[in-house]
Specification:
The complex is a heterodimer of chains A (about 475) and B (about 100). Chain A is an alpha/beta fold. Chain A contains 15 helices and 11 strands. Chain A has an 11-stranded mixed β-sheet. In chain B, strand 1 and strand 2 form a beta hairpin. In chain B, helix 1 crosses helix 2. Chain B is flat. The chains are: A alpha/beta (about 475), B mainly alpha (about 100).
Chain lengths: ~475, ~100
């Protein structure tokens, strides 16, 4: 069989189940595809060829014994911010370049119980701080649709790898848009679950009240299949919700009868590219055709304050979380001084890149004596208002739809010298993390050969509503089948 | 909003983050610019509003205190920059 690497999870699963394909054959094909294009795309920090084949043989044994589940034997890539026991987990930082976790993240434990196959770890903005994957301390990842452009970030490696068929699916993490924005830029499906839906145990912490792990997949069905496995309460993460996890594939229906959709006008921001606006308008018309009622006059009045609030809240949490990298317990350590403070200061100076330092500085300032009330506490109160905006909207609408990003992917190097411009590329995604609600980005158009993402947002714990709308749209369109022409 | 080099050095000291002189100047300009963009929040009336630290309103999460094996010391120390006798080796704290 040709083009095995282009299969979706559900297509691969059917072939594995019917014994028309083994996991070893599939894994070999995907690895071959990965090695063929990754010197151009550069999505992977670590490729675990041997471990992948070992996992595949284990999966084949399980399948032979009649134990096959939707993810069994299907090869995946994992963002390098998620701890994998015995496999280097770098966060694309010099600080953790040689860090080999002694334990698995909860999501990895859950995937292992399904007999998953790991192909390796994907590149990202250092410690998940960034919107382009240019902040990786190792190398820049390229957008498979145009290698001169960024894949988005911070989960740029995961999104680019799925778009380039280097993996059947990938995991990412999302603190302010880090799954959805790169998924939108790379023309794949990416979902940020409700805060508390997926355990953060073993996810290297960036901003603990905003971080969530989620799937990056080739279609919406696959997204539901991965979500089914990774969600759920975890005693090792006390912020996970003690709720049952529904079978998300049951939400996948081909029509949108009785679905109420709101379009918040604040998301069609100044500086938005007209072609992106047009593509999103077309997508919304499509949702109407499928039977949904659409209200285009919705207002979430505090949207305009989300960016400022986010860049106080997230760096504040980051400055506390990253204080642990002191050169004592693990990670890079400056050893040429006998003075404790000097060692610590030099460890951070040499171990962290510019964006991480910038955010540590920003967060430390916002939390420091004399500024705490004016910045951090103020931002937390604005957070209350942003959350209420969403709560009010969801009394009237089942989902809200917006662009995922105001622009198509930008050129590598275009925004690296201007942090404020870079931060603006997440303007449509970060209010969602502030409110803790779930959202998905799906492929909804191409502008000059570059992908446009449609973002769908639902109320807390209603991932099913996202998947229903996304699936109906996908069934009626063919954007998700478009592939970049990687020579 | 414009930070002085002195303020930048003070913040770096609080974070125990070493900075070169070039970094002090770069961050002085960039952080001033970022903070200027945050002035917008001052215009929001937040009187009588509670702050939100966490969005799904779980509180007082308890679980049974059941002992279970910890990670082996050897595994945990495998990533240590320096160790001795099953301990982390660090610079003297008191001199």
């Amino acid at each position: 069989m040709d083009n095995l690497h282009q299969l979706t999870i559900h297509e691969a699963h059917r072939l594995l189940k019917e014994k028309k394909l083994s996991s070893v054959e599939l894994t070999e094909a995907v690895l071959k595809g990965l090695h063929k294009v990754d010197d151009k795309v550069r999505a992977c920090v670590t490729v675990t060829d041997e471990q992948a084949l070992k996992d595949a043989r284990e999966a084949d044994k399980a399948i032979a014994a009649g134990d096959i589940r939707p993810l069994t034997g299907v090869p995946s890539l994992i963002k390098d911010v998620i701890c994998t026991r015995g496999i280097r987990t770098t966060c694309s930082s010099k600080m953790l370049e040689n860090f080999v976790p002694p334990y698995d993240a909860t999501v990895i434990k859950k995937l292992k119980a399904e007999h998953y196959v790991i192909l390796g770890k994907t590149n990202m903005d250092e410690f998940a701080m960034g919107s382009s994957t240019e902040n990786s301390a190792f190398f820049v990842t390229h957008n498979p649709w145009d290698l001169d452009r960024v894949p988005g970030g911070s989960s740029g490696g995961s999104a680019a790898s799925v778009a380039a068929d280097e993996a059947i699916y990938a995991l990412g993490s999302d603190t302010g848009g880090s799954i959805r924005q790169p998924a939108g830029f790379c023309g794949v499906v990416g979902l940020k679950p409700t805060y508390g839906r997926v355990s953060r145990y073993g996810l290297v912490a960036f901003a603990s009240s905003l971080d969530q792990i989620g799937p990056i997949t080739k279609d919406v069905t696959d997204c539901a299949l991965v979500l089914n496995i990774i969600c759920g309460h975890d005693k090792r993460d006390s912020t996970t919700a003690p709720l049952d996890v529904p079978d998300f594939t049951r939400a996948l229906k081909p029509d949108l009868k009785k679905v109420r959709i709101g379009v918040p006008k604040e998301y069609f921001v100044r500086g938005m590219q007209p072609e992106v606006h047009k593509a999103v308008d077309e997508a919304i018309k499509q949702l109407e055709k499928l039977g949904a009622s659409v209200d285009r006059s919705v207002s979430l009045p505090y949207t305009g304050y989300a960016l400022a609030a986010y860049y106080i809240l997230a760096p504040s949490e980051a400055s506390a979380n990253l204080a642990r990298y002191d050169g004592v317990k693990y990670g890079y350590s400056y050893r040429d001084s006998s003075n404790m403070w000097e060692s610590m200061e030099k460890t951070k100076q040499n171990g962290f890149g510019a964006e991480v330092k910038r955010r540590i500085m920003l967060g430390t300032y916002a939390l420091s004596a004399g500024y705490y009330d004016a910045y951090y506490l103020k931002a937390q109160k604005v957070r209350t208002l942003i959350k209420r905006d969403f709560e009010q909207a969801f009394q009237k609408y089942d989902v809200l739809v917006t662009p995922t990003s105001p622009t198509v992917p930008f050129k590598i190097g275009e925004k690296t010298d201007d942090p404020v411009q870079m931060y603006l590329s997440d303007v449509c995604t970060l209010p969602i993390n502030i409110a803790g609600v779930p959202a998905i980005s799906i492929p909804a158009g191409l502008v000059n050969g570059l992908p446009v993402g449609l973002q769908i947002i639902a109320k807390h714990f209603d991932e099913a509503a996202l998947l229903r709308v996304a699936y109906a749209f996908e069934q009626a369109t063919d954007w998700h089948t478009k592939k970049p022409a990687l020579a | 909003m414009s930070l002085s080099a002195e303020e930048v050095r003070h913040i770096a000291l609080l974070a125990r983050l070493g900075l070169s002189e070039e970094e002090v100047e770069k961050f002085r300009t960039q952080l001033s610019n970022i903070l200027e963009n945050m002035e917008i929040l001052k215009g929001v009336d937040t009187a009588d509003l509670p702050p939100t630290a966490q969005t799904i309103a779980l509180s007082n999460v308890y679980r049974a205190d059941e002992p279970e094996p910890s990670l082996p010391v050897k595994d945990v120390l495998a990533n240590a920059p320096a160790q001795e006798d099953d301990s982390l080796k660090i610079n003297a704290v008191l001199e």
